[in-house]
Structure formats: C-alpha cells, structure tokens
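Design job #97: recover the sequence.
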C-alpha cells in the first residue's frame, strides 16, 4: 500500500483502486476524501479507476503539449537568436573584408604612385643624360669638322708650295 501525505489529506492510490472517493490536486495525485461505501460494485470501482486514469492521461497529455509548446517556443527563440547572431557576425566579417579591401586598394595605389614617380624621375634622368650625350656628340662633330677643315686648309697651302720646299 502506498501512502503519502499532502497537507492534511492522505494520498492512497491502493484505496483509489479499491473504491474510495478520490479527487486530484494540481500535481495530479489522487486525494482521498472519504472512504467508499460497501454498496459500490466492483464495476463502479473500475469505472472510477478508468475515470481517474482518463483524467490523469488527459492531464499528462495536456502537460506534454504545454511542455512541447514551451520547448518549441524556446527552440524557435534560440534559432532566431542564433540566426541574428550569425547575421550580425556575417555583417561584421563583410565589413572587415570591405575595410581590408579598401586598405589593400589604398596600399596598391600608393605603391603604384611611388613606382610611377620613381619611373618619372628615372626617365627625366635618362632624358638629361641623352641630352648631355647629344650635346657631347654635337661638340665632338664640331671639333672634328674644325680639325678636318684645318687639315684641308693645310693641304691646300701645301699644294701651292713647290715640292722642293716640301722635300727639304
């Protein structure tokens, strides 16, 4: 026999099965209020037992449905939170990638400008060197022309001098 005490009311499931009048509390336990009379037939005890089992089953189903709804709501809330966190994280990563791309683009532009400036300086130096070489070439041609002109002038004067003077 199973007896437990809840408040001032005695709980007895064996008595509930054997014909005592019972009610249930909010926890679903059978509360024994008064003993059944001996006039109740075994069928009425079985009917009461089936009624008690039916009420208990309905209560358990209702509790299970409520718990399932609660778990579903909690799962949906958790999924929504996770989706929001994932969305926020992906937006953060996208922003970080955009910032990194902008930095990389700025760095590449800076390197490109530096390289172009270096090439422009090198080009200017080479053009100055080419100008100096052209000037040197023009100067060299001028001196060669003067030198050849002097030699031709000497040859012309030597043609006017008799060969005997040249031989001496």
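Job complete. Output follows.
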């Amino acid at each position: 026999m199973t007896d437990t005490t809840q408040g001032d009311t005695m709980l007895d499931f064996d008595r509930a099965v054997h014909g005592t009048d019972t009610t249930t509390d909010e926890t679903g336990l059978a509360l024994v209020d008064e003993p059944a009379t001996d006039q109740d037939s075994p069928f009425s005890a079985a009917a009461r037992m089936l009624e008690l089992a039916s009420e208990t089953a309905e209560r358990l189903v209702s509790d299970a449905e409520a718990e399932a709804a609660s778990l579903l709501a909690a799962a949906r809330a958790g999924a929504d939170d996770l989706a929001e966190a994932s969305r926020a994280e992906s937006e953060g990563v996208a922003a970080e990638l955009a910032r990194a791309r902008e930095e990389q683009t700025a760095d590449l532009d800076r390197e490109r400008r530096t390289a172009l400036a270096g090439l422009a300086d090198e080009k200017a130096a080479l053009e100055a060197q080419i100008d100096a070489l052209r000037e040197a070439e023009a100067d060299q041609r001028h001196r060669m022309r003067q030198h050849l002109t002097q030699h031709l002038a000497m040859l012309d004067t030597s043609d006017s001098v008799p060969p005997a003077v040249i031989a001496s």
